[in-house]
Amino acid sequence: MFQVTPGMRRLGASVLGMEAIVVALTIPVALRSGAEPSVAVAVGAGLAVLCVLVAALLKRPVAFIVGTILQVLVIATGFLVPTMFFLGVIFLALWITAIFVARRVEGVTFR
User: Fold this and answer.
1) Could you say which residues form the signal peptide (predicted)?
2) What 3-state DSSP class applies to 53?
3) Could you read off the pLDDT tens digit of each residue along the chain, which spans 111 residues?
4) Which of these, 73, 54, 71, lies nearest to 8 by C-alpha position?
């Protein structure tokens, strides 16, 4: 069973909080690069809000699954702003590190 630890919640929320800021900042970059304004705002604001919502729900194990799916969606924003391919992979690495490092530090094993 997947057990959520306090460290996982703290590190995961930190990653998602910073990611929300970065994703929101893709809106002006996408607009500047000629993206459709409605698409740029919907994608940027939508993903930023999702980051904040998932961060608030990290007490539940399902939030970590949704957070992982969210990481894939952030990488996909690279089709709108190419730099997000790179930044999305960095945030995915931070997300995975937040989960596994917190579990290791707190001595939780997978069962």
Assistant:
1) none
2) helix
3) 577 888 889 999 999 999 999 999 999 999 999 999 999 999 999 999 999 999 999 999 999 999 999 999 999 999 999 999 999 999 999 999 988 888 777 775 555
4) 54
Q: 76-83: list long-range contacts, CB under 8 Å, 24+ apart.
A: 77/23, 77/26, 77/43, 77/44, 77/47, 80/26, 80/30, 80/35, 80/39, 80/40, 80/43, 81/26, 81/29, 81/30, 81/33, 81/35, 83/29
Cα-based angle 38, 21, 46 (whole degrees, multiple of 5): 35
Distance, CA of 84 to CA of 103 (rounded, Å):
28
DSSP class of residue 79 equals G
